[in-house]
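User: Fold this, then the next.

Assistant: Folding the first:
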Amino acid sequence: MDALQHDKADMPVLISLYAKIGRMRVLSSPDVVESAQQVAHKIVDTYLEPEKNFIELREMVNDRSIDLLNDFSEACRREFELLRVRLFSMSGR
Protein backbone atom coordinates (compact mmCIF):
# COMPACT_ATOMS: atom_id res chain seq x y z
CA MET A 1 0.00 0.00 0.00
CA ASP A 2 2.86 2.38 0.74
CA ALA A 3 4.25 1.92 -2.77
CA LEU A 4 0.86 2.68 -4.30
CA GLN A 5 0.60 6.00 -2.49
CA HIS A 6 4.21 7.22 -2.39
CA ASP A 7 7.00 7.68 -4.87
CA LYS A 8 9.78 7.46 -2.28
CA ALA A 9 10.62 3.96 -1.12
CA ASP A 10 10.54 3.09 2.56
CA MET A 11 14.10 1.74 2.58
CA PRO A 12 14.06 0.12 6.06
CA VAL A 13 10.93 -1.82 5.09
CA LEU A 14 12.46 -2.94 1.78
CA ILE A 15 15.67 -4.02 3.53
CA SER A 16 13.59 -6.02 6.00
CA LEU A 17 11.63 -7.59 3.13
CA TYR A 18 14.80 -8.72 1.37
CA ALA A 19 16.21 -10.06 4.67
CA LYS A 20 13.06 -12.15 5.09
CA ILE A 21 13.41 -13.48 1.56
CA GLY A 22 16.99 -14.39 2.42
CA ARG A 23 15.74 -16.46 5.35
CA MET A 24 13.16 -18.07 3.06
CA ARG A 25 16.02 -19.27 0.83
CA VAL A 26 17.21 -21.40 3.74
CA LEU A 27 13.84 -22.68 4.94
CA SER A 28 11.42 -22.65 2.01
CA SER A 29 11.02 -24.31 -1.35
CA PRO A 30 12.30 -22.65 -4.52
CA ASP A 31 8.68 -21.97 -5.56
CA VAL A 32 7.98 -20.02 -2.36
CA VAL A 33 11.22 -18.04 -2.70
CA GLU A 34 10.52 -17.24 -6.36
CA SER A 35 7.02 -16.06 -5.53
CA ALA A 36 8.34 -13.89 -2.68
CA GLN A 37 10.92 -12.37 -5.04
CA GLN A 38 8.17 -11.55 -7.53
CA VAL A 39 6.25 -9.73 -4.80
CA ALA A 40 9.36 -7.76 -3.84
CA HIS A 41 10.04 -6.82 -7.47
CA LYS A 42 6.45 -5.68 -7.91
CA ILE A 43 6.67 -3.53 -4.77
CA VAL A 44 9.89 -1.88 -5.94
CA ASP A 45 8.45 -1.32 -9.44
CA THR A 46 5.28 0.16 -7.96
CA TYR A 47 7.28 2.96 -6.31
CA LEU A 48 8.25 4.07 -9.83
CA GLU A 49 4.64 4.28 -11.00
CA PRO A 50 2.38 7.31 -10.45
CA GLU A 51 0.67 7.47 -7.07
CA LYS A 52 -2.85 6.03 -6.95
CA ASN A 53 -5.85 7.98 -5.72
CA PHE A 54 -8.69 6.43 -3.74
CA ILE A 55 -10.84 5.68 -6.81
CA GLU A 56 -7.93 3.90 -8.49
CA LEU A 57 -7.29 1.90 -5.31
CA ARG A 58 -10.97 0.93 -5.19
CA GLU A 59 -10.80 -0.26 -8.80
CA MET A 60 -7.70 -2.31 -7.95
CA VAL A 61 -9.58 -3.89 -5.04
CA ASN A 62 -12.55 -4.67 -7.26
CA ASP A 63 -10.48 -6.28 -10.02
CA ARG A 64 -8.21 -7.94 -7.43
CA SER A 65 -5.04 -6.52 -8.95
CA ILE A 66 -4.11 -5.10 -5.55
CA ASP A 67 -3.62 -8.60 -4.10
CA LEU A 68 0.14 -8.98 -4.54
CA LEU A 69 0.31 -11.85 -2.09
CA ASN A 70 -2.12 -14.25 -3.76
CA ASP A 71 0.48 -16.26 -5.69
CA PHE A 72 2.85 -16.20 -2.72
CA SER A 73 0.09 -17.48 -0.43
CA GLU A 74 -0.74 -20.27 -2.85
CA ALA A 75 2.93 -21.30 -3.07
CA CYS A 76 3.09 -21.39 0.73
CA ARG A 77 -0.11 -23.43 0.90
CA ARG A 78 1.30 -26.00 -1.57
CA GLU A 79 4.52 -26.25 0.41
CA PHE A 80 2.64 -26.62 3.68
CA GLU A 81 0.47 -29.37 2.18
CA LEU A 82 3.55 -31.25 0.95
CA LEU A 83 5.15 -31.00 4.38
CA ARG A 84 1.93 -32.12 6.06
CA VAL A 85 1.66 -35.15 3.77
CA ARG A 86 5.31 -36.08 4.40
CA LEU A 87 4.91 -35.72 8.15
CA PHE A 88 1.70 -37.77 8.10
CA SER A 89 3.30 -40.54 6.01
CA MET A 90 6.34 -40.64 8.32
CA SER A 91 4.18 -40.88 11.43
CA GLY A 92 2.22 -43.79 9.95
CA ARG A 93 5.27 -46.01 9.58
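Now the next one, as you asked:
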Amino acid sequence: MDAATIRGLRPKLEKFLGRFDDCFSRSDTRSHLPIYVQGQLSDLPRKSVEPMALAADVPPRTLQEFLSLLDWGHGQMRDRLQQIVVEQHLSPHGIGIIDETGCVKKGDKTPGVQRQWCGSVGKEENCVVTVHLGYAVGGFHCLLDSELYLPESWAQDRERCRQAGIPDEMDYRPKWQISLELLDQARANGLSFAWLTFDEWYGGKPPFLRALAERNQRYVAEVPRNFHVWINPPRTTARPFHRGGRGSGRKTPRLISGSRPPLEVGNLLRFSPEVRDQPWEPYRVKDGSKGPMIWESKHRIVYPKDENGLPGSPLHLVIARNVLQPAEIKYLISNAPPETALQTLLLVGFSRWHVERCFEDQKTELGFDHFEGRKYVGLKRHQAITAVSHLFLSQVHQDLRGKKPGAHGVSGAHGHGRVGPELVADRSHLNPAPGKDRPDHSAGSAEKCSVTPQPHQANVAQTPRRRRPSRRPFSLLVERKLAL
Protein backbone atom coordinates (compact mmCIF):
# COMPACT_ATOMS: atom_id res chain seq x y z
CA MET A 1 0.00 0.00 0.00
CA ASP A 2 1.46 3.34 -1.03
CA ALA A 3 1.64 6.59 0.93
CA ALA A 4 -1.31 8.11 -0.92
CA THR A 5 -3.52 5.23 0.17
CA ILE A 6 -2.40 5.64 3.78
CA ARG A 7 -3.15 9.37 3.73
CA GLY A 8 -6.52 8.61 2.21
CA LEU A 9 -7.55 6.65 5.27
CA ARG A 10 -7.98 9.77 7.41
CA PRO A 11 -11.18 11.02 5.72
CA LYS A 12 -12.42 7.45 5.55
CA LEU A 13 -11.91 7.08 9.30
CA GLU A 14 -13.59 10.41 10.01
CA LYS A 15 -16.61 9.41 7.97
CA PHE A 16 -16.74 6.01 9.66
CA LEU A 17 -16.56 7.45 13.18
CA GLY A 18 -19.26 9.95 12.22
CA ARG A 19 -21.70 7.05 12.29
CA PHE A 20 -21.28 7.04 16.08
CA ASP A 21 -21.84 10.78 16.68
CA ASP A 22 -25.25 10.31 18.30
CA CYS A 23 -23.72 8.10 21.00
CA PHE A 24 -22.51 11.36 22.57
CA SER A 25 -24.68 14.20 23.86
CA ARG A 26 -21.82 16.73 23.96
CA SER A 27 -19.40 17.63 21.19
CA ASP A 28 -16.43 17.95 23.57
CA THR A 29 -17.02 14.38 24.76
CA ARG A 30 -17.42 13.20 21.16
CA SER A 31 -14.07 14.71 20.24
CA HIS A 32 -12.25 12.15 22.42
CA LEU A 33 -13.36 9.18 20.29
CA PRO A 34 -11.03 9.83 17.31
CA ILE A 35 -8.14 10.44 19.71
CA TYR A 36 -8.69 7.04 21.30
CA VAL A 37 -9.20 5.25 17.99
CA GLN A 38 -6.17 6.85 16.34
CA GLY A 39 -4.12 5.86 19.37
CA GLN A 40 -5.21 2.26 18.86
CA LEU A 41 -4.37 2.42 15.15
CA SER A 42 -0.94 3.92 15.79
CA ASP A 43 2.38 2.14 16.17
CA LEU A 44 2.68 2.87 19.89
CA PRO A 45 4.17 -0.13 21.70
CA ARG A 46 1.73 0.35 24.59
CA LYS A 47 -1.85 1.45 23.90
CA SER A 48 -3.18 2.21 27.34
CA VAL A 49 -4.65 5.61 28.12
CA GLU A 50 -1.48 7.43 29.16
CA PRO A 51 0.76 6.77 26.12
CA MET A 52 -2.13 7.36 23.71
CA ALA A 53 -2.98 10.68 25.41
CA LEU A 54 0.64 11.84 25.46
CA ALA A 55 1.06 10.94 21.78
CA ALA A 56 -2.01 13.07 20.97
CA ASP A 57 -0.75 15.90 23.21
CA VAL A 58 -3.76 15.76 25.55
CA PRO A 59 -3.74 15.28 29.35
CA PRO A 60 -4.00 11.58 30.29
CA ARG A 61 -6.68 12.51 32.79
CA THR A 62 -8.87 13.60 29.88
CA LEU A 63 -8.96 10.15 28.29
CA GLN A 64 -9.31 8.48 31.68
CA GLU A 65 -12.45 10.55 32.34
CA PHE A 66 -13.67 9.81 28.82
CA LEU A 67 -13.62 6.09 29.63
CA SER A 68 -14.91 6.11 33.19
CA LEU A 69 -16.71 9.34 34.08
CA LEU A 70 -18.13 11.27 31.12
CA ASP A 71 -21.70 10.65 30.02
CA TRP A 72 -22.00 8.77 26.73
CA GLY A 73 -23.63 5.59 25.48
CA HIS A 74 -21.29 2.67 24.99
CA GLY A 75 -24.32 0.39 24.66
CA GLN A 76 -25.57 2.61 21.86
CA MET A 77 -22.12 2.37 20.26
CA ARG A 78 -22.38 -1.42 20.32
CA ASP A 79 -25.86 -1.24 18.78
CA ARG A 80 -24.62 1.07 16.02
CA LEU A 81 -21.69 -1.23 15.25
CA GLN A 82 -24.07 -4.16 14.89
CA GLN A 83 -26.39 -2.11 12.68
CA ILE A 84 -23.43 -1.30 10.40
CA VAL A 85 -22.66 -5.00 10.13
CA VAL A 86 -26.31 -5.65 9.24
CA GLU A 87 -26.28 -2.94 6.57
CA GLN A 88 -22.96 -3.80 4.94
CA HIS A 89 -22.05 -7.39 5.77
CA LEU A 90 -25.17 -9.40 6.61
CA SER A 91 -25.32 -12.56 4.53
CA PRO A 92 -27.54 -15.65 4.49
CA HIS A 93 -24.29 -17.59 4.94
CA GLY A 94 -23.01 -15.73 8.01
CA ILE A 95 -21.53 -17.63 10.94
CA GLY A 96 -21.81 -16.48 14.54
CA ILE A 97 -18.92 -17.58 16.74
CA ILE A 98 -18.95 -17.71 20.53
CA ASP A 99 -15.68 -17.76 22.42
CA GLU A 100 -13.90 -16.24 25.38
CA THR A 101 -10.48 -14.75 25.94
CA GLY A 102 -8.35 -13.86 28.94
CA CYS A 103 -6.17 -10.81 29.55
CA VAL A 104 -3.42 -11.12 32.16
CA LYS A 105 -3.55 -8.38 34.80
CA LYS A 106 -1.55 -7.45 37.87
CA GLY A 107 -3.14 -6.63 41.20
CA ASP A 108 -6.72 -7.17 42.31
CA LYS A 109 -8.54 -3.98 41.26
CA THR A 110 -9.41 -4.64 37.61
CA PRO A 111 -13.09 -5.69 37.44
CA GLY A 112 -13.44 -9.46 37.51
CA VAL A 113 -9.75 -10.18 37.96
CA GLN A 114 -8.72 -13.31 39.82
CA ARG A 115 -6.54 -16.34 39.33
CA GLN A 116 -8.36 -18.46 36.76
CA TRP A 117 -7.76 -20.25 33.50
CA CYS A 118 -6.36 -17.88 30.87
CA GLY A 119 -6.50 -19.37 27.39
CA SER A 120 -4.18 -16.76 25.88
CA VAL A 121 -1.25 -18.02 27.99
CA GLY A 122 -2.43 -21.64 28.33
CA LYS A 123 -2.42 -21.83 32.13
CA GLU A 124 -4.03 -20.46 35.28
CA GLU A 125 -3.11 -16.83 35.71
CA ASN A 126 -4.30 -13.64 37.39
CA CYS A 127 -6.51 -12.38 34.58
CA VAL A 128 -9.81 -10.97 33.39
CA VAL A 129 -12.01 -13.21 31.21
CA THR A 130 -14.51 -11.82 28.72
CA VAL A 131 -17.09 -13.67 26.60
CA HIS A 132 -17.51 -12.59 22.96
CA LEU A 133 -19.80 -12.99 19.99
CA GLY A 134 -18.10 -12.77 16.60
CA TYR A 135 -19.35 -12.75 13.03
CA ALA A 136 -17.72 -14.19 9.91
CA VAL A 137 -18.71 -14.42 6.27
CA GLY A 138 -16.26 -15.15 3.48
CA GLY A 139 -13.01 -13.37 4.29
CA PHE A 140 -14.68 -10.80 6.59
CA HIS A 141 -14.85 -11.13 10.36
CA CYS A 142 -15.38 -8.89 13.38
CA LEU A 143 -16.44 -8.95 17.03
CA LEU A 144 -20.03 -7.89 17.65
CA ASP A 145 -20.24 -7.74 21.43
CA SER A 146 -18.52 -8.74 24.65
CA GLU A 147 -19.24 -9.02 28.34
CA LEU A 148 -17.19 -9.51 31.46
CA TYR A 149 -17.28 -12.92 33.10
CA LEU A 150 -17.87 -12.13 36.77
CA PRO A 151 -16.42 -14.92 38.94
CA GLU A 152 -18.43 -16.19 41.89
CA SER A 153 -15.85 -14.80 44.34
CA TRP A 154 -16.58 -11.31 42.98
CA ALA A 155 -20.34 -11.79 42.87
CA GLN A 156 -20.35 -12.79 46.55
CA ASP A 157 -18.40 -9.66 47.54
CA ARG A 158 -20.81 -6.87 46.67
CA GLU A 159 -18.70 -4.19 48.31
CA ARG A 160 -15.80 -5.08 46.05
CA CYS A 161 -18.17 -4.96 43.08
CA ARG A 162 -19.40 -1.49 44.07
CA GLN A 163 -15.83 -0.21 44.31
CA ALA A 164 -15.28 -1.43 40.74
CA GLY A 165 -18.54 0.12 39.55
CA ILE A 166 -20.15 -3.26 38.80
CA PRO A 167 -23.97 -2.82 38.93
CA ASP A 168 -25.77 -4.46 41.85
CA GLU A 169 -28.00 -6.37 39.43
CA MET A 170 -24.99 -7.96 37.74
CA ASP A 171 -24.43 -11.36 39.33
CA TYR A 172 -22.49 -14.47 38.53
CA ARG A 173 -23.68 -16.19 35.35
CA PRO A 174 -22.08 -19.16 33.62
CA LYS A 175 -20.34 -18.20 30.40
CA TRP A 176 -22.92 -19.97 28.28
CA GLN A 177 -25.65 -17.79 29.79
CA ILE A 178 -23.62 -14.68 29.00
CA SER A 179 -23.27 -15.85 25.41
CA LEU A 180 -27.05 -16.25 25.12
CA GLU A 181 -27.47 -12.65 26.27
CA LEU A 182 -25.03 -11.50 23.59
CA LEU A 183 -26.85 -13.55 20.97
CA ASP A 184 -30.27 -12.17 21.94
CA GLN A 185 -28.95 -8.60 21.86
CA ALA A 186 -27.47 -9.07 18.40
CA ARG A 187 -30.71 -10.54 17.12
CA ALA A 188 -32.61 -7.58 18.53
CA ASN A 189 -30.38 -5.35 16.39
CA GLY A 190 -31.31 -7.23 13.21
CA LEU A 191 -28.44 -9.72 13.01
CA SER A 192 -29.15 -13.28 12.02
CA PHE A 193 -26.82 -16.25 11.78
CA ALA A 194 -27.16 -19.17 9.41
CA TRP A 195 -24.97 -21.03 11.88
CA LEU A 196 -23.48 -20.69 15.32
CA THR A 197 -20.30 -22.47 16.35
CA PHE A 198 -18.35 -22.76 19.61
CA ASP A 199 -15.92 -25.01 21.42
CA GLU A 200 -16.46 -27.90 23.81
CA TRP A 201 -16.69 -25.68 26.90
CA TYR A 202 -20.02 -24.46 25.52
CA GLY A 203 -20.99 -27.52 23.48
CA GLY A 204 -20.80 -29.70 26.57
CA LYS A 205 -23.61 -27.74 28.28
CA PRO A 206 -26.99 -29.36 27.43
CA PRO A 207 -29.00 -26.35 28.73
CA PHE A 208 -27.12 -24.13 26.27
CA LEU A 209 -27.84 -26.44 23.35
CA ARG A 210 -31.51 -26.61 24.31
CA ALA A 211 -31.69 -22.82 24.52
CA LEU A 212 -30.30 -22.53 20.99
CA ALA A 213 -32.78 -25.10 19.71
CA GLU A 214 -35.62 -23.13 21.33
CA ARG A 215 -34.39 -20.08 19.41
CA ASN A 216 -34.39 -22.11 16.17
CA GLN A 217 -30.66 -21.45 15.88
CA ARG A 218 -28.62 -23.94 13.86
CA TYR A 219 -25.24 -24.78 15.33
CA VAL A 220 -22.18 -26.94 14.89
CA ALA A 221 -20.63 -27.45 18.30
CA GLU A 222 -17.48 -29.15 19.46
CA VAL A 223 -18.25 -31.39 22.44
CA PRO A 224 -16.02 -33.11 25.01
CA ARG A 225 -15.17 -36.76 24.58
CA ASN A 226 -17.41 -37.68 27.56
CA PHE A 227 -20.55 -36.38 25.79
CA HIS A 228 -23.03 -39.30 25.92
CA VAL A 229 -25.04 -40.47 22.91
CA TRP A 230 -26.89 -43.48 21.55
CA ILE A 231 -26.35 -44.70 18.02
CA ASN A 232 -29.76 -46.39 18.10
CA PRO A 233 -32.20 -44.75 20.52
CA PRO A 234 -33.55 -47.08 23.21
CA ARG A 235 -37.25 -47.44 23.79
CA THR A 236 -38.86 -45.47 26.60
CA THR A 237 -42.01 -45.98 28.62
CA ALA A 238 -44.23 -43.82 30.80
CA ARG A 239 -45.53 -46.77 32.84
CA PRO A 240 -44.86 -46.37 36.57
CA PHE A 241 -41.80 -48.13 37.86
CA HIS A 242 -42.41 -50.01 41.12
CA ARG A 243 -39.20 -50.69 42.97
CA GLY A 244 -39.62 -54.08 44.63
CA GLY A 245 -43.23 -54.22 43.42
CA ARG A 246 -44.43 -51.76 46.06
CA GLY A 247 -45.64 -48.20 46.26
CA SER A 248 -47.21 -45.94 43.67
CA GLY A 249 -44.14 -46.09 41.47
CA ARG A 250 -42.07 -43.50 39.64
CA LYS A 251 -44.24 -41.94 36.93
CA THR A 252 -41.64 -40.03 34.91
CA PRO A 253 -40.70 -41.45 31.49
CA ARG A 254 -37.85 -43.93 31.64
CA LEU A 255 -35.89 -46.37 29.55
CA ILE A 256 -37.38 -49.82 29.31
CA SER A 257 -35.66 -52.48 31.36
CA GLY A 258 -32.51 -53.89 29.78
CA SER A 259 -31.82 -50.89 27.54
CA ARG A 260 -28.24 -50.31 26.52
CA PRO A 261 -26.60 -47.35 28.23
CA PRO A 262 -25.32 -44.47 26.09
CA LEU A 263 -21.69 -44.34 25.06
CA GLU A 264 -19.24 -41.50 25.38
CA VAL A 265 -18.40 -40.11 21.95
CA GLY A 266 -14.76 -40.71 22.78
CA ASN A 267 -15.45 -44.46 22.97
CA LEU A 268 -17.50 -44.85 19.79
CA LEU A 269 -14.44 -45.65 17.68
CA ARG A 270 -13.67 -48.59 19.99
CA PHE A 271 -17.04 -49.98 21.01
CA SER A 272 -19.57 -49.05 18.32
CA PRO A 273 -19.39 -51.26 15.20
CA GLU A 274 -21.52 -48.72 13.29
CA VAL A 275 -18.83 -46.10 13.80
CA ARG A 276 -15.71 -48.26 14.08
CA ASP A 277 -16.33 -50.06 10.77
CA GLN A 278 -17.22 -46.90 8.86
CA PRO A 279 -14.31 -45.85 6.62
CA TRP A 280 -12.58 -42.54 7.25
CA GLU A 281 -13.20 -39.89 4.60
CA PRO A 282 -10.26 -37.48 4.10
CA TYR A 283 -10.95 -33.77 3.58
CA ARG A 284 -8.66 -30.84 2.98
CA VAL A 285 -10.14 -28.63 5.63
CA LYS A 286 -8.09 -25.49 5.15
CA ASP A 287 -5.05 -24.16 3.35
CA GLY A 288 -2.70 -22.60 5.87
CA SER A 289 0.58 -20.79 5.53
CA LYS A 290 2.44 -24.11 5.53
CA GLY A 291 0.23 -25.98 3.11
CA PRO A 292 -3.10 -27.84 3.10
CA MET A 293 -4.40 -29.30 6.33
CA ILE A 294 -5.88 -32.75 6.00
CA TRP A 295 -8.44 -34.19 8.38
CA GLU A 296 -10.40 -37.41 7.99
CA SER A 297 -13.88 -37.78 9.33
CA LYS A 298 -16.78 -40.09 10.10
CA HIS A 299 -20.41 -39.04 10.27
CA ARG A 300 -23.42 -40.51 12.01
CA ILE A 301 -26.84 -39.45 13.28
CA VAL A 302 -26.93 -39.93 17.06
CA TYR A 303 -29.29 -39.33 19.98
CA PRO A 304 -27.84 -37.41 22.94
CA LYS A 305 -28.63 -38.26 26.54
CA ASP A 306 -30.75 -35.49 28.07
CA GLU A 307 -30.88 -34.35 31.70
CA ASN A 308 -33.40 -37.12 32.51
CA GLY A 309 -31.20 -39.83 31.05
CA LEU A 310 -33.47 -40.21 28.02
CA PRO A 311 -32.62 -39.96 24.32
CA GLY A 312 -33.00 -36.44 22.96
CA SER A 313 -33.66 -35.19 19.45
CA PRO A 314 -31.38 -36.62 16.75
CA LEU A 315 -28.15 -34.74 16.03
CA HIS A 316 -25.35 -35.03 13.52
CA LEU A 317 -22.13 -36.38 15.00
CA VAL A 318 -18.90 -35.75 13.11
CA ILE A 319 -15.67 -37.32 14.33
CA ALA A 320 -12.70 -35.55 12.75
CA ARG A 321 -9.12 -36.83 13.10
CA ASN A 322 -5.95 -34.98 12.15
CA VAL A 323 -4.18 -37.10 9.54
CA LEU A 324 -0.71 -35.99 10.64
CA GLN A 325 -1.49 -36.18 14.36
CA PRO A 326 -3.99 -39.04 14.74
CA ALA A 327 -4.21 -38.53 18.50
CA GLU A 328 -5.90 -35.18 17.84
CA ILE A 329 -9.60 -35.93 17.42
CA LYS A 330 -12.51 -33.50 17.46
CA TYR A 331 -16.12 -34.41 18.14
CA LEU A 332 -18.71 -32.14 16.55
CA ILE A 333 -22.50 -32.24 16.88
CA SER A 334 -25.11 -30.28 14.97
CA ASN A 335 -28.87 -29.82 14.98
CA ALA A 336 -28.90 -29.19 11.22
CA PRO A 337 -31.46 -30.99 9.03
CA PRO A 338 -30.56 -34.62 8.25
CA GLU A 339 -29.76 -33.87 4.60
CA THR A 340 -27.06 -31.31 5.45
CA ALA A 341 -23.76 -32.19 3.78
CA LEU A 342 -20.82 -33.35 5.84
CA GLN A 343 -18.63 -30.78 4.06
CA THR A 344 -20.84 -27.97 5.35
CA LEU A 345 -20.70 -29.25 8.92
CA LEU A 346 -16.92 -29.44 8.74
CA LEU A 347 -16.64 -25.94 7.35
CA VAL A 348 -18.75 -24.43 10.12
CA GLY A 349 -17.06 -26.49 12.81
CA PHE A 350 -13.62 -25.34 11.68
CA SER A 351 -14.57 -21.66 11.44
CA ARG A 352 -13.58 -20.71 14.97
CA TRP A 353 -10.23 -19.46 13.69
CA HIS A 354 -12.06 -16.28 12.68
CA VAL A 355 -12.76 -15.22 16.26
CA GLU A 356 -9.31 -16.37 17.41
CA ARG A 357 -7.87 -14.15 14.72
CA CYS A 358 -10.02 -11.25 15.95
CA PHE A 359 -8.63 -11.74 19.45
CA GLU A 360 -5.08 -11.87 18.15
CA ASP A 361 -5.44 -8.72 16.05
CA GLN A 362 -7.17 -6.77 18.78
CA LYS A 363 -4.51 -7.72 21.32
CA THR A 364 -1.40 -7.39 19.18
CA GLU A 365 -2.45 -4.40 17.07
CA LEU A 366 -5.14 -2.45 18.96
CA GLY A 367 -4.20 -2.85 22.62
CA PHE A 368 -7.32 -4.77 23.66
CA ASP A 369 -5.45 -6.24 26.64
CA HIS A 370 -3.74 -2.96 27.58
CA PHE A 371 -6.69 -1.67 29.63
CA GLU A 372 -5.47 -0.45 33.04
CA GLY A 373 -8.63 1.00 34.59
CA ARG A 374 -10.42 -0.06 37.74
CA LYS A 375 -14.03 0.59 36.71
CA TYR A 376 -16.44 -1.73 34.95
CA VAL A 377 -17.83 1.02 32.71
CA GLY A 378 -14.30 1.87 31.60
CA LEU A 379 -13.68 -1.77 30.65
CA LYS A 380 -16.96 -1.93 28.71
CA ARG A 381 -16.18 1.28 26.85
CA HIS A 382 -12.65 0.16 26.04
CA GLN A 383 -14.03 -3.07 24.57
CA ALA A 384 -16.69 -1.19 22.57
CA ILE A 385 -14.18 1.26 21.08
CA THR A 386 -11.73 -1.53 20.29
CA ALA A 387 -14.50 -3.35 18.41
CA VAL A 388 -15.17 -0.15 16.45
CA SER A 389 -11.48 0.23 15.58
CA HIS A 390 -11.32 -3.41 14.52
CA LEU A 391 -14.43 -3.11 12.35
CA PHE A 392 -12.87 -0.14 10.56
CA LEU A 393 -9.72 -2.12 9.86
CA SER A 394 -11.72 -5.14 8.68
CA GLN A 395 -13.59 -2.96 6.23
CA VAL A 396 -10.42 -1.26 4.97
CA HIS A 397 -8.81 -4.66 4.51
CA GLN A 398 -11.83 -5.89 2.58
CA ASP A 399 -11.89 -2.78 0.36
CA LEU A 400 -8.22 -3.18 -0.46
CA ARG A 401 -8.76 -6.82 -1.35
CA GLY A 402 -11.73 -5.86 -3.50
CA LYS A 403 -13.86 -8.77 -2.38
CA LYS A 404 -17.51 -8.70 -1.41
CA PRO A 405 -18.38 -10.47 1.85
CA GLY A 406 -21.56 -12.10 0.62
CA ALA A 407 -20.21 -13.52 -2.62
CA HIS A 408 -19.12 -16.72 -0.94
CA GLY A 409 -20.34 -18.06 2.32
CA VAL A 410 -21.29 -21.12 4.27
CA SER A 411 -24.07 -23.21 2.83
CA GLY A 412 -27.42 -22.71 4.45
CA ALA A 413 -28.85 -25.11 6.98
CA HIS A 414 -30.37 -27.18 4.18
CA GLY A 415 -27.14 -27.41 2.24
CA HIS A 416 -27.83 -24.79 -0.42
CA GLY A 417 -25.42 -22.14 -1.59
CA ARG A 418 -21.67 -22.00 -1.75
CA VAL A 419 -19.00 -21.56 0.83
CA GLY A 420 -15.97 -19.33 1.11
CA PRO A 421 -12.39 -19.88 0.06
CA GLU A 422 -11.31 -21.65 3.25
CA LEU A 423 -12.64 -25.07 2.19
CA VAL A 424 -12.54 -26.31 -1.38
CA ALA A 425 -14.65 -29.19 -2.66
CA ASP A 426 -13.33 -31.77 -5.08
CA ARG A 427 -14.77 -35.22 -4.52
CA SER A 428 -13.63 -36.74 -7.82
CA HIS A 429 -10.56 -38.37 -6.28
CA LEU A 430 -12.57 -40.84 -4.20
CA ASN A 431 -16.22 -41.11 -5.12
CA PRO A 432 -18.63 -40.30 -7.95
CA ALA A 433 -21.18 -37.52 -7.69
CA PRO A 434 -22.88 -37.43 -4.28
CA GLY A 435 -26.26 -38.96 -3.76
CA LYS A 436 -29.41 -37.35 -2.45
CA ASP A 437 -28.31 -37.59 1.17
CA ARG A 438 -24.97 -35.90 0.42
CA PRO A 439 -25.59 -32.82 -1.74
CA ASP A 440 -22.58 -31.51 -3.61
CA HIS A 441 -21.13 -28.28 -2.22
CA SER A 442 -18.40 -27.17 -4.51
CA ALA A 443 -16.26 -24.05 -4.46
CA GLY A 444 -15.74 -23.91 -0.76
CA SER A 445 -16.87 -27.00 1.07
CA ALA A 446 -14.36 -29.19 2.80
CA GLU A 447 -12.45 -30.86 0.03
CA LYS A 448 -12.68 -34.59 0.01
CA CYS A 449 -9.32 -35.70 -1.28
CA SER A 450 -6.73 -38.41 -1.64
CA VAL A 451 -3.73 -36.16 -1.26
CA THR A 452 -0.68 -37.49 0.53
CA PRO A 453 0.02 -34.99 3.35
CA GLN A 454 3.32 -33.17 3.16
CA PRO A 455 5.67 -33.25 6.16
CA HIS A 456 5.47 -29.49 6.61
CA GLN A 457 1.73 -29.54 7.39
CA ALA A 458 2.16 -30.02 11.11
CA ASN A 459 0.25 -26.87 12.09
CA VAL A 460 -3.45 -27.67 11.98
CA ALA A 461 -6.24 -25.39 10.81
CA GLN A 462 -7.96 -25.16 14.17
CA THR A 463 -5.83 -23.76 16.99
CA PRO A 464 -6.31 -25.91 20.10
CA ARG A 465 -8.57 -24.42 22.76
CA ARG A 466 -5.85 -23.75 25.31
CA ARG A 467 -3.29 -22.19 23.01
CA ARG A 468 -3.05 -18.78 21.54
CA PRO A 469 -3.23 -18.88 17.73
CA SER A 470 0.23 -18.70 16.24
CA ARG A 471 -0.56 -18.49 12.56
CA ARG A 472 -2.13 -15.57 10.71
CA PRO A 473 -4.36 -16.73 7.82
CA PHE A 474 -4.13 -13.33 6.18
CA SER A 475 -2.93 -9.86 7.11
CA LEU A 476 -5.68 -7.73 8.56
CA LEU A 477 -3.95 -4.43 9.21
CA VAL A 478 -3.19 -2.44 6.10
CA GLU A 479 0.06 -1.27 7.69
CA ARG A 480 1.54 -1.60 11.13
CA LYS A 481 1.82 2.19 11.19
CA LEU A 482 -1.22 3.94 9.77
CA ALA A 483 0.15 7.52 9.75
CA LEU A 484 -3.18 9.06 10.72
